[in-house]
Design a protein that fits this description.
It is a single chain. This protein is mostly beta strands and about 550 residues long. Among the domains are: about 160 residues, 24 nucleotide stem-loop, u2 snrnp hairpin iv. U2 a', Chain A (Alpha-Beta Horseshoe); about 140 residues; about 70 residues, Immunoglobulin-like. About 10% of the residues lie in helices and about 30% in strands. The strands form five sheets. It has a 21-stranded parallel beta sheet that branches. Helix 4 links the parallel strand 32 and strand 33. The longest helix has 17 residues. The N and C termini lie far apart (about 120 Å).
């Protein structure tokens, strides 16, 4: 019996020798000779217990590694002169990550034809001539994410077609990939990041139901979001940018929960996002021609930043918990149901003449700032605003002529007041400002404006005979167009205009009419800047007039 046992051990010992594991600390190759000598240095080594790092431009052939079947750690192939991965035909399992980066000569991954499992992520980056990964067609499981970056000649990801298990995120960045079909079995991702692809739509993600972290899709050439119809939940942020030919987000119609920020920029439309009722982070919109599609959005829990957008599709929005910023705004119609802004309201560089559309706004939790706007004439639209949290700052608005619109802000809610460098602003005598100046709560900076708003002393003087009636007259008076060419229209609802006098900036009378109704011929006035003085009963109202041809 003893002899039989010894015989069995003798017969099995070559098999053990042929399949022994080795290198528990892993191994790094930094020249070609080390790879060529591998089998003589480590005979019968088929399983490497640590990481394998192949990293040097002198390496151009992996034939010396042909005995390796399993790598318990990661395989990293970086900055080599390899054209392919021939020599790794026996490799079946990489239990860590597979990283292939910065190999300027690599054309394909032939040699990985037997690879079936990767324990962590598959990461291929900056292999500028790589155009084919079909040798990965036996790969069935990836334990981490897939990251393909800057593979400028890779237009197909065929080779990943047989993936059954795929856990993690999907990143494809600056690769001319034309189809996501290989991911048709994927139902969950940690993140989805697509940028610089040549897609028509998102077919291939048809079974994706949830993304636990973020979705970011930028400049992918898509004209349709078809393929995302089963997606219902995004745990983090949602970013969609630079798809000028995309007319509908109907593929995202079942998304009803977004856990983080929403950024949508440079798209012609956002139609199809009707399932979104609240945004738990910041909300950033830029250069959207048609906002119809967010009709059911009620609340934004972070900040909102809106740049050059038509806002008609936001009719249900009634609360922004953070700050609201309008930059280069189109008319604000569509926000009539917005009741409160928890942070600051900032309006800058707009293309609007007033603030109509914000008529429902009653409270601002932070600062009210209106600045650098060359088109804004008055603040009408804010008549229902009753309180702010800190400061009023109104500055550097070229043709703003009146503070009408912020009359009803409680002066007790204003901390600091700054009104400066508004060269056409002549009407500051409104209830909120006059009452604040009589009992200020903080610093006051008023300068660089015009006439009765020129500085603090001028405003305080005009406020001495403040009356609500006079303020109302100013608000009702309309002088247009401005700039004017041949004719000037002057109207005043329900009151009579006694006389109109037009002066040069040096105080010389250029035109006088009494009484006035309707239109005044100004064709004889040379181009320039004038002062229009309108007398209504005992009240003089003055505004700047620009005449141009």
């Amino acid at each position: 019996m003893k002899n039989v046992t010894l015989l069995v051990l003798f017969l099995l010992s070559p098999l053990f020798v042929l399949t022994q594991p080795c290198l528990p600390e892993g191994i790094s190759f930094d020249n070609q000779q080390q790879i060529d000598n591998f089998q003589s240095m480590y005979p019968n080594c088929t399983t490497i217990e640590g990481d394998v790092v192949i990293w040097d431009w002198s390496i151009n052939d992996l034939s010396g590694l042909s005995s390796i079947a399993t790598i318990e750690g990661s395989l990293k192939i970086i900055e080599t002169s390899l054209k392919n991965l021939t020599g790794l035909e026996e490799l079946q399992h990489v239990n860590g990550a597979l990283l292939i980066r910065h190999n300027d000569s690599l054309v394909n991954v032939n040699g990985l034809n037997s690879l079936s499992t990767i324990g962590h992520e598959l990461d291929m980056q900056n292999n500028y001539y790589l155009n084919n990964i079909s040798a990965l067609n036996n790969l069935i499981s990836i334990g981490g994410g897939i990251h393909l970056r800057n593979l400028f000649r890779l237009d197909s990801i065929n080779g990943l077609d047989n993936l059954v298990n795929f856990n993690g995120g999907l990143t494809i960045h600056e690769c001319p990939v034309i189809s996501l079909q290989p991911f048709n079995n994927t139902s969950e991702l940690s993140h989805l990041y697509l940028r610089g692809l040549q897609l028509h739509d998102l077919t291939g993600l048809n079974n994706l139901t949830s993304v636990s972290w973020y979705v970011e899709i930028v400049n992918t050439s898509i004209v349709s979001t078809h393929g995302m119809e089963l997606l219902s939940e995004i745990g983090g942020s949602f970013t969609f940018k630079s798809h000028p030919n995309l007319s509908s987000y109907s593929g995202f119609q079942n998304v009803n929960a977004i856990g983080g920020d929403v950024t949508i920029e440079y798209n012609s439309s956002i139609s199809g996002l009707n399932g979104i009722t609240e945004i738990n982070g910041d909300f950033k919109l830029s250069n959207i021609e048609n906002m119809t599609g967010l009709n059911n959005l009620v609340q934004v829990k972070g900040d909102a930043i809106i740049t050059e957008c038509d806002l008609e599709g936001l009719s249900s929005l009634n609360e922004i918990d953070g700050s609201l910023t309008f930059e280069k705004s189109l008319p604000l119609y569509g926000l009539e149901n917005l009741l409160s802004v928890g942070g600051s309201l900032t309006i800058l560089e707009g293309g609007i003449q007033d603030l109509q559309g914000l008529n429902g706004l009653t409270t601002i939790g932070g600062r009210l700032e209106i600045k650098d706007d060359d088109n804004l004439k008055n603040l009408s639209g804010l008549q229902n605003l009753e309180s702010i949290g800190t400061d009023i700052k109104i500055h550097d608005n070229l043709i703003l002529n009146s503070l009408y619109g912020i009359d009803n802000i409680s002066p007790q809610s204003i901390i600091n007041l700054s009104i400066y460098n508004n060269p056409s602003l002549s009407m500051c005598k409104i209830k909120s400002i006059c009452e604040y100046l009589s009992s200020p709560n903080g610093a006051i900076n008023i300068y660089g404006n015009w006439a009765e708003c020129e500085d603090r002393a001028a405003v305080e003087t005009s406020c001495e005979d403040f009356s609500v009636e006079e303020s109302n007259i100013y608000n009702l008076l309309k002088i247009y167009p401005n700039p004017a060419q041949q004719e000037l229209n002057i109207s005043l609802e329900s009151l009579t205009i006694n006389e109109v006098t037009i002066y040069s900036l040096t105080g010389q009378q250029r035109q006088h009419a009494m009484p006035v109704e309707g239109t005044i011929d100004i064709s004889h006035l040379i181009p320039g800047i004038y002062i229009v003085d309108v007398l209504i009963e005992d009240t003089h109202i003055r505004q700047k007039l620009v005449v141009q041809r």
